[in-house]
Design a protein that fits this description.
Order of helices and strands: EEEEEEEEEEE
Bound molecules: FE2/S2 (inorganic) cluster
Oligomer: single chain
CATH superfamily: Rieske [2Fe-2S] iron-sulphur domain
Distance between the termini: 42 Å
Strand content: 35-45%
Structural class: mainly beta
CATH architecture: 3-layer Sandwich
CATH class: Mainly Beta
Length: 127
Amino acid sequence: MTRRETESTSAAPGGPGGPGGPGGEPAFVLACTLKDVPEDGAIGVEIEGTPVAIVRTSDGIYALRDVCSHAEVPLSEGEVYDHTLECWLHGSCFDVRSGQPTGPPATEPVPTYPVKTEGDDVYVALR
Ligand code: FES
């Protein structure tokens, strides 16, 4: 008789494709399609009530909270160049890879989120 692993207790309830699990895996959620995101540009989406800027640079797609840490306007309406997202209101610059401010007046970072693409779909994990 061979010994098997102990029974799984994960018991996924078979819901409507609920993202991720409680086991620490990021819960990726469909955010948009690649076609939605302009080259060297950004769009704003809302995921589970959180505003998220989806940014396309020459080397890929990044996601960060779509709220400037300086005065709470949508960063997705700013300009994208290199790995920088520049806020349209007062010109703060953020590195889209880290969310860190790279130009004043903002001094606080904005949260960034993991991104993955599957085919034309862009998925973001808020947690
Ligand atoms: S609101 Fe973004 S720099 Fe002031």
